[in-house]
Amino acid sequence: MRFSCLVAIVPEEHEEKAIRTAKKAGAGSVSILQARGQGLEERKTFFGLTFEGSQSVLFFVLERKLSLRVLKALQRELDLGESDGLTFTLPIEHLAGINTQELSQFEESLKDDL
Q: Quick count: other Cβ atoms within 10 Å of Cβ 102?
């Protein structure tokens, strides 16, 4: 079985929706980091205070084919083409410590595709 790391960077207010969407598409566990981002546009200020939107960085370790399904679901449900979000996958060469229950879940998801 080959694995990918799916990374989703979403506004903090969309974190729960992103996790629900990913799990509905077949993802299992997720690691979450809080982040700040700076885009192309200048930061907004209000009475001299700079506003920086908080973002969540979600990491999912998924079977490679499943990662594409989850990526597409996130793109569709969160409208990532039009919002402040980004999703991508990275190949995983070596992996240790993945839960065997999650492996079984991945195998079941793959059987559903056949």
A: 15
**What residues contact 99, with CB distance under 8 A and at least 6 apart?**
28, 29
- Is 17 part of any domain? yes
How do beta strands 44-46 and 31-36 pair? unpaired
Backbone angles phi, psi at 57, to 5 degrees: -110, 115
Residue 73: CB atoms within 10 A of its CB come to 19
Q: Is 43 inside a domain boundary? A: no
pLDDT in tens, 89-102: 999 998 888 777 77
Number of domains present in the structure of the chain: 1
What does the pLDDT look like over 63-90, one tens digit per residue?
999 999 999 999 999 987 666 789 999 9
Global pTM value: 0.81
- 49-51 and 44-46 as β-strands: parallel, antiparallel, unpaired? antiparallel
In this structure, which amino acid lies at residue 114? L
